[in-house]
Structures are given as C-alpha cells and as structure tokens.
Amino acid sequence: MSSVETISNSPGQTQRLGRRLGALAEAGDVFLLSGELGSGKTCLVQGIAWGLGVEEYATSPSFVLVRPYEGRLPLYHIDFYRLDDIAEIADLGLEEYLWGDGVCAVEWAEKALALLPEEHLLIRLEHVATNKRRLLLEPRGNRYIELLSSFSRRPKRA
After folding, report:
1. Is residue 81 part of a domain?
2. Domain count, the chain
3. To which H or E segment does residue 44 belong?
4. CATH of the domain at 134
5. Could you tell me if 147 and 1 are in contact, meaning their C-beta atoms sit under 8 angstroms apart?
C-alpha cells in the first residue's frame, strides 16, 4: 500500500483520526508528524494518546522536548519545534524512546529525519482552509503498510 490521503474538517475530526491510529498502535511504533505551525500536529497527537488509553490531555512539549504519557502502551510525545541544529537533536539521547517499547509521536520531524528510525509512519499535515486540513500518511516499512491498511479498512467517518 502506498500513501493514504484524508481530509479533516475540524480539530475534533483530526483528534478522532489520531484516536484511530492510537487504537492500532503497537509497541515500538513511530509516528513522524510534519507540517507548518497550526496544521494540527498536536490535535493528532491528542487523538493518538486517547487511542492508547491515555486519560490526560496531551499538550505540546515544546519547552521540555519529550512529554511521556501512560496508557495501554507508553506514549512519548517529542517536539523538535525549538531546535534547528541536527547535531543538537542528535545529542538529546532519544534512542531509548525511538527504539523502545512505547509509541513515539514526533512533531516537526522534518528537522531530524536522518536521525529517526528508517521505518515509521510519516504524516504530513497542511492547511486547506480555516478548519480544514489535508493529512497524507506515508508508510515506511511493512509494519506501517499493515497499520495503514487496517486504518483504511476502518470507517472513514471519524
């Protein structure tokens, strides 16, 4: 399966799409989120968290870089927004998260693609209109092709 494109017409719908991804997530999954400021990355992570059974409301970890949440699997919400130097990102020691037993959701992943796991689900978010967003989900590796196949079989109405 190649990439899947979907449209979200509201922040709530973006969260519901994320919830579907979180419900399908397995230990070791890595979701890389890319998109301009305000494109819905954090809304999507909130849904992923809820899909994993996290009861907290996920917020952007821009100032702490990694915010962990406990659900049926640990979720590590990573945000590279404030980082511009790939060497600085490399020095963060994120290996235990990225190659661990939890689920990682990385905002602003485009800043460090060379350092991130080769196999992942890349999710590109872009503004279409005021509350409308286009999400392009691009699987890299068999695990993510399978995940996206399951995601696509589930009802599109989020």
Report:
1. yes
2. 1
3. helix 41-51
4. 3.40.50.300
5. no
DSSP H or E run through 45:
helix 41-51
Q: Are 87 and 11 in contact (CB under 8 A)?
A: no
For 156, which DSSP code?
S
Instruction: Report the DSSP beta bridge partners of residue 32.
Output: 106, 122
**96 in a domain, yes or no?**
yes
- Whether residue 14 is contained in a domain is answered as yes
Nearest CA to 110 out of 86, 94, 135, 142 is that of 86
Of the candidates 76, 70, 74, the residue with the CA atom closest to the CA atom of residue 107: 76
Max distance between CA atoms of the chain, in angstroms, equals: 42
* 2 lies in some domain: no
pTM (two decimals):
0.91
Closest CA to 69 of 93, 102, 108: 102
Q: Please compute the mean of the pLDDT values over residues 78-88 and round it to a whole number.
A: 78
28-66 pLDDT per residue, tens: 999 999 999 888 999 999 999 999 999 988 887 667 788
DSSP state of 126: E
Domain with 142 in it: 9-153
